[in-house]
Write a sequence for this structure.
């Protein structure tokens, strides 16, 4: 869906932000651009919606060269969420979320229904929240509203630049989990920028690790952790490899499947896992609940149970593999 061909961004002979990169983002995929400050990840993302212009090379969206597309029209079809949200303080939640749908001339009833539906997705009561102003929201609530604004007009592509970076660790994890669940429903093509390897592993279908404007490796989180391409990649992963191994090993092959029609409403929201949950998330939930088995849900439908003994066996096997390395 998005394709870079030999793209560079050069500000001066001493400042090459992006150096001859080629990559492709598949439809419905979340590609995380990961790297330290100055690695070129944000510049790479901003070239997709023409907030930055490549010095050389070409970028295509649905096989159309974006050089040939009107910049304003292009941006209206791409959602954009940033770290410090950028909500307009003089506008209500409803007005903030409705900005792009209004520009696209949606009728009032369509906008109202869309905003009510979006607020409900993130657990907001529309009647309670849509007339509030940003000053009446917590940091986590503001960030959620920023994400909803980015997807309000149902764009096929969403760009996210360190979207949860300003949140405290607990709120950040909550919003990440909510977005992962939302992502499975909205099925958008997402380019997500972060410097946090743990966030990248959690959010990505694939990760493009960048350094000095170049791509060191593009891989799934599991491939990146288990098969780093070179010494630079190994150094970036550092001492966190075992923890990252736990994060990139999901529970999808560990739980007992069931065909029951039981829905999430019968369970406490916080006491659930999904097939995509990592074994470290499962371990944390076992510790918190002190249960011997946990329900696994896929889009709010019960699909099986994970037994604590199976989880511990899997972690034991990973430890044995680590010792052999």
């Amino acid at each position: 869906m998005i394709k870079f061909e030999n793209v560079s961004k050069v500000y001066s002979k001493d400042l090459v932000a992006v150096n001859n990169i080629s990559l492709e983002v598949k439809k419905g995929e979340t590609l995380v651009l990961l790297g330290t400050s100055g690695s070129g990840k944000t510049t790479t993302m901003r070239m997709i919606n023409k907030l930055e212009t490549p010095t050389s090379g070409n970028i295509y969206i649905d096989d159309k060269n974006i050089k040939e597309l009107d910049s304003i029209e292009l941006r209206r079809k791409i959602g954009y969420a940033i770290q410090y949200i950028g909500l307009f303080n003089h506008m209500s939640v409803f007005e903030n979320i409705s900005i792009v749908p209004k520009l696209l001339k949606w009728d009032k009833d369509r906008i109202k229904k869309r905003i009510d539906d979006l607020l409900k997705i993130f657990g907001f009561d529309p009647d309670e929240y849509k007339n509030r102003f940003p000053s009446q929201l917590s940091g986590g609530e503001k960030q959620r509203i920023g994400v909803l604004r980015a997807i309000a007009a149902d764009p096929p592509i969403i760009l996210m630049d360190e979207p949860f970076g300003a949140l405290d660790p607990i709120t950040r994890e909550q919003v990440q989990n909510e977005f992962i669940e939302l992502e499975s429903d909205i099925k958008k093509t997402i380019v997500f920028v972060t410097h946090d390897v743990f966030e990248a592993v959690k959010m990505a279908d694939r990760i493009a690790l960048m350094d000095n404007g170049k791509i060191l490796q593009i891989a799934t989180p599991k491939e990146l952790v288990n098969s780093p391409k070179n010494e630079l990649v190994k150094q970036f992963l550092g001492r966190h490899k075992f923890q990252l191994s736990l994060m990139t090993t999901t529970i999808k092959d560990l739980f007992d499947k069931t065909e029951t029609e039981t829905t999430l409403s019968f369970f406490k929201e916080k006491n659930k896992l999904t097939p995509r949950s990592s074994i470290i998330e499962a371990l944390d939930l076992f510790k918190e609940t002190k249960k011997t088995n946990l329900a696994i849900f896929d889009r709010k439908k019960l699909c099986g149970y994970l037994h604590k003994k199976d989880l511990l066996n899997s972690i034991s096997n990973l430890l044995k593999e680590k010792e052999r390395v």
